[in-house]
Design goal:
- It is a single chain.
- This protein is an alpha+beta fold.
- It has two domains: 118 residues, 3-Layer(bba) Sandwich (FAD/NAD(P)-binding domain); 91 residues, Alpha-Beta Plaits, CATH 3.30.70.
- The protein contains six helices and eleven strands.
- It has a five-stranded antiparallel β-sheet. A four-stranded mixed β-sheet has the order 3-2-1-5, with no helix packed on it. Strands 4-11 form a two-stranded parallel sheet.
- A hairpin with a 5-residue loop joins β1 and β2.
- α3 crosses α4.
- The two termini are 39 Å apart.
């Protein structure tokens, strides 16, 4: 899965010191030393100070982070034993209660890629409030909406559910990035090297594919290429001494 890379899971970084010859990262498993650094956490996590940097992040970068915060969005997935919807693959269904306009609306992706799934998409205040209320409340809301549209008998074939909790997840603090009005160019600042050996990557960094896996993937490759170029240059400089 990780090829030959020494990946360590469940090892959150609390401090990063870039002031010395080696970059030092403090974790519950001890100090990690590195020669180059790529940070991929969300803009909200970076802006929150959850990771302490020495020296501190540049003011220009902090301003850019505040211009492109992560918004509130969550998903609730329902997995059924068989197709209970009778809709084409990857159908999109919007839920609105005309009898009760005050009831929040949401949307569903039904049978994505020929699977027996229905995935509720929640956004904004609704996503945040249900996230803070807990998994049971979020699931109940989406289940009621799905049952109102397709009938409650479909749940006789329900195998399981899964939810995201991106707002309350301390390692996310939000979902997809969203530029505040007038701050779209902040993404270009995030794409700049923080220093010659310190780079950012992630969907928020992408000017063209923000809020997508593609954006995260492409900026990760670009950051890795910059880090590799720095390391190659550092090695060449040592050899020339």
């Amino acid at each position: 899965r990780y090829a030959d890379l020494p990946v360590e899971l469940s090892t959150p970084v609390s401090e990063i010191d870039t002031s010395g010859a080696n970059i030092l990262l403090e974790t519950p498993r001890g100090t990690v030393r590195a020669r180059s650094l790529i940070v991929t956490v969300s803009t909200n996590v970076l802006a929150s100070g959850a990771i302490r940097f020495t020296p501190g992040l540049p003011a220009r970068l902090i301003s850019a982070l505040e211009g492109v915060p992560t918004g509130h969005a969550n998903k609730v997935a329902f997995h059924f034993r068989r197709d209970v919807f009778g809709l084409p693959d990857t159908s999109y269904v919007n839920f609105m209660d005309e009898r009760n306009p005050a009831r929040p609306a949401c949307s569903f992706q039904v049978r994505p890629f020929s699977t027996n799934l229905a995935i509720a998409y929640l956004g904004g205040d609704l996503a945040e409030n249900l996230d803070r209320a807990g998994e049971a409340e979020m699931t109940a809301f989406a289940r009621e909406a799905l049952g109102d549209m397709f009938g409650t008998d479909i749940f006789k074939e329900l195998e399981g559910t899964a939810v995201t909790s991106w707002t309350t997840d301390p390692h996310m603090m939000g979902a997809y990035s969203c530029a505040r009005p007038g701050h779209a160019k902040s993404r270009a600042v995030l794409a700049e090297p923080v220093s010659e050996r310190f780079f950012l990557a992630g969907e928020a960094v992408s000017a063209d594919w923000f809020s997508t896996v593609q954006g995260a993937h492409v900026t990760g490759i670009e950051a890795a290429e910059k880090a590799a170029a720095y390391l190659a240059g550092a090695v060449a400089a040592v050899r020339q001494r």
